[in-house]
Amino acid sequence: MDVLILGLGNHGGGAGAAEYFCKKGCNVTVTDLRPEAELQKSLITLSQFPITYRFNTHNPEDIKKADLVIKNPAVSPNNKLLLNQNNIQSDLSYTLPKFDIPIIAVTGTKGKSTTAAAIAATLKSFGWKTFMMGNMGISPFQVLDKTAKLSQDDKEKALIILELSSWQLRDLNRYTPDNSHSTYFSMTVITSLFQDHLNTYQCYSDYISDKMLIFKFLKQNGYTVIPKTAKDELIIRNIMLKKHSIFDHNIVKDHLGEQIDIFGIQKDLIPASAACLARGYSIEDINKALSNFSGLPHRREVVKVVNDITYINDSAATVPESISFCLEQIDGNIHLISGGTDKKLETEMFLSAYKRITSLHLLGGSLTERLVPLLVNTTTNFTGPYRTMESAFTSALEFAEKSKEKGVASYIILSPGAASFDLFLNEFERGNIFKKLVINLL
User: Fold this and answer.
1) Cα–Cα distance for residue pair 344/366, rounded to 1 Å
2) What CA–CA distances, in Å, run from 228 to 2, 113, 427?
3) Average pLDDT of the residues in 286-290
4) Which of 124, 179, 252, 406 lies in the 20 to 30 Å Cα band around 82?
5) Are residues 348 and 431 in the same domain?
């Protein structure tokens, strides 16, 4: 069988698909619009396999002759090369029908990865064998291989926690046959909903509509966990939920009217706590399990404390609400590295988030170009734009050293609130450069 991986990327999805089909004995071709030099992470992973590569292009002849095309979510389904082709699948539309263990699906604007990881860690502590996959960079093809090797006894105590972006949901819907009535998820979790990706969606409503596709694949007796703020979006789209819990601050209320006070659970772990409550565990046991959960890299990650300055890597913050969420839990002098590539979000949210900081050091990018004229008319003390993380970091450090006050904590925080692509390969490279600069201070 001839298989084409359309879009290799560096997040594991393309590489996982290519490896899977190579091991099945297929003839695999991989194409990507980026040059070879920018795809080395995936190419090293695949170096042992006999794969045909085409860089800087997607070849229409490759698409036509392939028996199967696995499309990367970053490749628009409206790409003219894909129109009128019936051999296209996404990694999820191909793999989900093949799984035979329960799947908990997680989506949302902010907190998807943390929630998925927290659910996995908590349920693992209760004796479940948990597998994570999806948007956090773990290919479903890799997990399909692993779960296929489980004994029947192990499968009865196994769960998959799937993190889903709006693009992945869009592709799953597009490439699942309308007449298949396929439902895959035993539980769906929405962490939060607000503006994002307006550089790729015509409007906020279109973005949310893709998020709401998660319910299309919920099993008939499946359970849903949502924030109170999502209720209106469900009503607008005539989505009726049978078994569900709604969380709001430190309260979780289920569809039977039972209300549980989860005061003491930190804010970003509330969706995971609500999901575990829905599976029948007590808040006491959940709280105990979460006390051992250390979080994920690039998400409010405390890197080091050096010379009384705390360095926090929040590079995964790609919307302004994430900046506010990070800063609201900080008390002291905050020297913020922020800005980057525009996602067509409202600038007022950035200006509001910046009101709490001592100084602002802007990374260059299309969003920053929109922010600078607005910041000039505020009292925000800002520098930049800078074309390198090193320059922004040096500026923030100079301000932090000058503004140290006895008895007042000092922080240098990377929380961009924007995409990374003007200066970095992705948000993970952005965060790793920041962390390296901190470690080099020691």
Assistant:
1) 10
2) 47, 20, 29
3) 95
4) 179
5) yes
Please give the pLDDT value at position 198: 83
Measured CA to CA, the distance from residue 312 to residue 289 in angstroms comes to: 24
The string of pLDDT tens digits covering residues 316-327 is 999 999 999 999
Q: Looking at the structure, do residues 65 and 82 belong to the same domain, yes or no? A: yes
Q: Is the pLDDT of residue 306 over 90?
A: yes
Say how many C-beta atoms besides its own lie within 10 A of residue 70's C-beta. 28
Rounded to an integer, the average pLDDT of 382-388 is 97
**Which among 206, 410, 132, 192 has a CA at the least distance from the CA of 317?**
192
Shared domain check, 324 and 238: no
Mean pLDDT of all residues in 330-334: 94
SS3 383: strand
**How far is residue 363's CA from residue 369's CA, in Å, rounded to a whole number?**
10
Structure tokens at 376: 């000039």
- Walk across the sheet containing 27-32 and list its strands: 51-55, 27-32, 2-6, 68-71, 88-90
107 within a domain of the structure (yes/no): yes
| Domain contains 296 | no
Query: Are 330 and 241 contained in the same domain?
Result: no
Q: What is the domain-level CATH number for residue 432?
A: 3.90.190.20
Residues 355 and 209 in one domain: no
Q: Give the Cβ contact number of residue 401 at 10 Å.
A: 13
Per the structure, the count of domains in the chain is 3
Q: What pLDDT, in 10s, does the model give residues 205-238?
A: 999 999 999 999 999 999 999 999 999 999 999 9
* Domain containing residue 18: 2-86
Of 328, 331, 296, 332, give the one whose Cα is nearest residue 314: 296
Q: What is the pLDDT of residue 195?
A: 84
Report the 10 Å Cβ neighbour count for 89: 18
**What confidence score (pLDDT) does residue 3 get?**
97
DSSP string, 95-131: HGGG--S-EEEEE-SS-HHHHHHHHHHHHHHTT-EEE
CB neighbour list of residue 284: distance below 8 Å, 6 or more residues apart: none
In a domain, 153, yes or no: yes
Helix (H, G, I), strand (E, B) or coil at 389: helix
Nearest to 3 by CA among 93, 88, 83, 99: 88
Grouping H, G, I as helix, E, B as strand and the rest as coil, residue 21 is helix
